[in-house]
Structures are given as C-alpha cells and as structure tokens.
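Sequence only, no structure available. Ideas?
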Amino acid sequence: MPVEEPMAARPSLRERRRATATREIVEAAERHITEHGPAALSLRAVARDLEMSVQALYHYFPSRDALVTALITKVYDDLTDAVRTAVEGAAGEGAPPGVVLASEGYRRWAIDNPERFQLIYGTPLRHYRAPVDGPTTQAVQRMAEIFARELFAGYTAEQLAGADVPPLSATFLADLEAPGALPAPAMALFLKAWGQLHGLVVLEVFGHTGFLGEHQAEIFRLSIHTLVEELHRRIPAAG
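Reply:
I predicted one. Tokens follow.
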C-alpha cells in the first residue's frame, strides 16, 4: 500500500494574523516608496499610514533594516516573476531567444516600476547593509538563474568551460569557481552580458535615452540580440 505523507500542519490563527499584518506592512512600505522615493522610507511613516504605533510595528520588524530587507526581497521576487512570465508567455516557434524575452521582461518591469527599481538598483539607502547571504542575495540568485539558463541554453559544461575570454586573474578564477556554479569562463561572460543589459535599462529608467523616443524598445532589442550573438561566438562548437 502507498505510504500516505503526513499533512502539513495548518498555521495557527496567531500565525495567520501575523502573516497578514507583515504583508500589509510591506505593502504600505511599497506604497510609501512609490509616492515619496526610497530615501524617504521610515518606520514612523509606514506606521502612520497603517494607523498603528511605531512600537506595534516593531513587533513585526525589529528595525528599519529588517523592513528594508523584506521589501527588497519582495521587489526582487516581483521582478523575477515578470522575467519568468516574459519567457514562458512568449516561448514557442518563431519567438525570440529566451534571453531576449527575459531581458525585455526585465526592461518592461523596470519602466513600469521606476521607484521600486530605484530601491534595488539606485542610490544605496543610507546606513542600510543587506544581510550576508541573506534573503536579498537569494532573491537575486533566483533571477540570475533564469538569465543564465536562457543565455546558455543548449551548451554543454565542456563548451562553457572552453569559452574564449581574456586571461583571468588567479584570485578572480578562485572566486568564480564555486561549487555548482557555471564554469569560470562562462561566468565571466555572464557578468559581462549582465553589465551591458542592466546598463541599458538603467539609462532608460533614469531618463538618459529619452532622446530616442518611441525607438527605445527597438534599440534595446537590437542591442540585446547583438550582445548575445557576440557572446555565443566565444563559445566553441560541440565536439
């Protein structure tokens, strides 16, 4: 007979109330950032919007850093969902390469959510330091995994290890060669591609390419196609 798996215990009423309150606090912080910008975020302002005391808010977030960490993690998760949806929603015969779809999903989300984009990629919040290997780092990794998968789809580990890149320093190689990570040459190419992709989006979100007008999306797609083609030429053919 099949062994029945034990049912997960249902959260208690207290746990459900805490989860609801935590979600409402993070959502209020997001609204505050959208209206006033990341630099204006404060626990007092968020508590006032929710008609609760700062002392009550501390029951859920013991510090401003704890709230900022939860907020940044959620922003990254929402951005990752947008990237994943862009890839899965347009995949199929005749669709652009997955990495192009992912890049365009990233761009669209950033344009639609400039204040939230600024929170994670704009001027660092004064006195805030993200936890080392904490939830924000894990959230970034989830998004990076989508881009890496789409960028190197169809290539073997041997091909990626043989990618043509300039000589890398011993210390850089040591940092890149982490267990389970891409081969060092592929990781170097990935970081190069990410820097160019992200730079294009930052320029547009902060208004530096407005002179292109309605052609910004076309230039972005052209740039990503060119970037991917140049990168793939550096990876040797199979065999």
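Residues 70-232 form a domain with the Tetracycline Repressor; domain 2 fold (CATH 1.10.357.10).
Hope that gets you unstuck.
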